[in-house]
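Because discrete structure vocabularies remain unfamiliar, we reproduce here a specimen of the format, pairing a chain with its fold in token form:
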Amino acid sequence: MFDDLRQEANSVYEESAAPKAETPASATNAKRAAPKKRSKLILGMTAPQRFVLAFMLTLMVCVIGFMFLLVMGKMGL
């Protein structure tokens, strides 16, 4: 049973290791002519969206810290 698996694995490996037929020059040039556009999205957001998110997060941390200081009595109004 395991011998058959080893033989099959070796045959598949040998087939994939064999050099592939060369593609025509026109197909190779077509691949080079259309470069992929690199997406500038991080987490699916554009730069302005990320800025707004970072600004809102900073504002929330400041407000929560201010409330914490008021509740603990470390800052008096």
Observations:
- The mean pLDDT is 78.
